[in-house]
Amino acid sequence: MAEQNTEAKLKNLLKQKKIQLWNPPYTDDDNQPGQQHMEELAQHCAPLLGLSVAEVGGALESVRVQAVNRGKGNKTYRETNVATLELLLPRDSRKVVCVFLCCRIGDDHGLKYIKLILNGKTLCVGESRLDEQGVKNHSKMMVLKVSDAELKRQMSEEEQKKKEQNESLQRTQKGFQILSERGALILAMGFHEKGRSLMKRKQYDNALCHLLQLDIVWCYRALEALSCLDDGKSRLRRAEDCFLQCYGEQRERLRMIKGNTGREEVLFLRLYLLQSLLSYLEGNDGQAQQQLSKVESLFSRLCLDSEKMAQLMALGFSEREARLGLRACQGDLEAAANHISSRRQVAPAPAPAPAPQLEPTASSASTGKTPPHLWTVGGAFFTQD
């Protein structure tokens, strides 16, 4: 990550000075570096970035090679219409490479079944053209392995999806509109909850296809692939706008409805942390530090006292109740205990287990009448009476 930060700051500096490393005198006709000019440029940039000449020299060469390869890819794309893509392979075979997209990806890297992720979306290879799915020359894509069980599950889901689509086409237009308005929200939230469940089990690659804005970026961070998410900042901006709209600028709407903001503050903690990381990867250290200050301030408020947690749990509260209660009451032990107790009182009591149904007596069976008192509350005859 530190290398990405250095290269990002160096690229910004070169852009400001309008220096093109892929052209002479920094790159000769054989695409080899112009050593003297590269060394002079490193000495010039090092004090501006506050780094050593050796660090800047290594980063300059890396940026130069990337630029030369990009130029080659652009030329190939213009002449043959074959795009060059950058793939981030799974962790156990992690290596960033540039290859021509073809069906040999799996063979070249020993991956039997794969799926390609571009900006949080799974590419449907074979169903539509890649450019129609947002793939461009030099796009960065993440390659994820698919197990045999996962492949079977995907095929089953695709079959079920097609079946449901065929059934929906047979419905009336009015019914379809109702489904598109209500069902879309239900479907989206169902997918999101499934994704959150997968995240809890640290199955980030499978969770990616089911999540909303903030959690998508979080999964890319967990997969160490933030550089592959071109629209990460815009996703976080949309998430922040939604939070502020729902909760209020100072969480006032949330306090009015719930009386506290404990659980939702964790969302803002993750939001600020991801914003800080993305700014750092872009070489914007000032903005990254500003966001990190928000993270540290919020974390200090959310960090719980272990002794208070133990005292609440000694009173019979669960660890989860103690944690949420302390966060809701800003660490006040007495207020947290009262808060948990009040929530327990308003929580619906669990439904009692149904008693076994009784058979009608012999006398009632002979007369054809069933006395209501011989049946449980859930029995059909009793409810009819």
Outline the structure in words.
The chain has 385 residues and is mostly helical. It has 4 domains: 1-80, no CATH class; 84-146, Roll (Ubiquitin-like (UB roll)); 170-302, no CATH class; 306-343. It contains 17 helices and 5 strands. The protein has a 5-stranded mixed β-sheet. The chain is globular, with a radius of gyration of 30 Å. Keywords: Coiled coil. Residues 360-369 have a biased composition (Polar residues).
Q: Please tell me the overall pLDDT.
A: 75
Fraction of helical residues: 55-70%
Order of helices and strands: HHHEEHEEEHHHHHHHHHHHHH
Radius of gyration: 30 Å
Largest sheet: 5 strands, mixed
The oligomerization state is single chain
Shape field: globular
Strand content: 5-15%
Classification by helices and strands: mainly alpha
Question: Strand order, biggest sheet?
Answer: 2-1-5-3-4
The DSSP helix count reads: 17
Whole-number total of structural domains: 4
**How far is it from the N-terminal to the C-terminal residue, by CA?**
72 Å
Poorly predicted spans: 94-103, 175-179, 355-385
- The tally of beta strands, per DSSP, is 5
InterPro entries: NUB1, NUB1_ubiquitin-like_dom, UBA, UBA-like_sf
GO biological process, one term: regulation of ubiquitin-dependent protein catabolic process
Keywords: Coiled coil
Domain UBA: 303-343
